[in-house]
Amino acid sequence: MIATRIIPRLDIKGPNLVKGIHLEGLRVLGDPSEFAKFYYEQGADELIYQDVVASLFERNSLHDIISKTAKQVFIPITVGGGLRSIEDIKQVLRAGADKVSLNTAAIKNPQLIKEASLKFGSSTIVVAIEAIKQSDGTYHAYIDNGREETGMEVARWAKQVEELGAGEINLTSVDRDGTGLGFDLELIKMVTDLVSIPVIAHGGPGNINHTAEAVTKGNAHAVSLASVLHYDAIKHNFNLEKVNEGNFEFLKANRNYSKISPCNLEEIKTHFKKEGLVVR
Amino acid sequence: MKKIVIIDYSLGNLFSVNQALVNSGANVCISDKPTDLLEADAVVLPGVGAFNEAMGNLQKSKLDKAILDCIKQGKPFLGICLGMQLLFNNSEEFGSTNGLGIIDGTIKKFKSSGYQKILVPQVGWNNILAPKNMNWEKTILKGINENTYMYFVHSYYALPKNAENVLSETTYSDIKYCSAVIKDNVTATQFHPEKSGEEGLRIYTNWLNTI
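^ Those are the sequences you sent over. The predicted structure of the assembly is below.
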């Protein structure tokens, strides 16, 4: 039986792992490759690296972090952020990524999904959809890490993404991201009902009970988790002295974010099993 | 030190296969030259992508013939994912394409039997089981427990003609299929041991121990 995947997501800014709320207000949490190794040893099924400022500044700073991680982590690594062309994708795969995640470039040029999935295989191409609920109740896809509205309805875009050959959809609720309020189940259910490719749900879970809901209530095939895991992992305090860029006051003050009750992968897997899900 | 060659035919996950072998202590070289294959002590055929494009690339660089020669000479040979599928007679991907014909059988696409929605590709962790009369002790799966989870990414699966070639089985949706094959000096897995954590790395170590 295929297992439900639990995927830590690591947002990267420059050399650091960061986490924000609604994809904004980024706090520095530490060295991403140390978190990656920690999650690998704890039994993570895959990892997602997202360069959260790459598409704004059109830079790709991830290559070193990917290569370092791929030498010590033997599970699939998906990399996203600022990938604009077949050549960009090739570079990231060469650095050690197994899959790439496209958003901004895919919306601006949907043919890139088709071209990339023909060239690298559908299973290598993940399309990230960053959704924000509109006042009329529909969801629109945003680009540039949730900053720019495209006017594209998520329902239509998800269908189109599947037709163009994407292997998976990584669905983020920007409204819920970092809030700890739980997954946007209506959004997840809408997309999983529409497509026949795996959907990874992201954004919102603030405690262990939230983590499985995307699957049990939203029919997602995988969950990608950030805050709940990271705020547990930082208790292990790896190499704090190395952090010297960005907003790290939060980290050094040893504070926690009130809406998040952190937990680790082992606890989450136990919870998934209790909910009747198959995990590795 | 024994020399391992990973075949580079412009498709696939060379980096991660290389990384896993190096981690297991191997002396590895990535090459697209038939002569390098013939000089190697053991050969790995990785692969992610389309069957017909892969066969085309192998033929263009005359690697297909070199692979057949290596296998005939008895060199330990390991196929991964598409590298396993290419060992069969043919695939129904894009009409019908002939494969290397080392293992009798064909490659088919996952299809729903009608009762259950099936997601294609299969992406994720699934478990492997030994078929009846198969003992893993003398294979690269030595020391791996039944039901261990391995990482899979594929839309097509292998149907070997002879049951004795089936090294492991896996069930996806309601389809029970062959997830690893064995024939003399040739072993191949549909899953990616290099992406299957510590248990996957053990498979590479086991394979290196046969060389």
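Chain B has six helices and 13 strands. The interface with chain A takes residues 13, 15-16, 19-20, 23, 48-50, 117-127, 149, 151-155, 171-172, 192, 194-198, 200-201 of chain B (CB under 8 Å).

Shout if you want it in another format.
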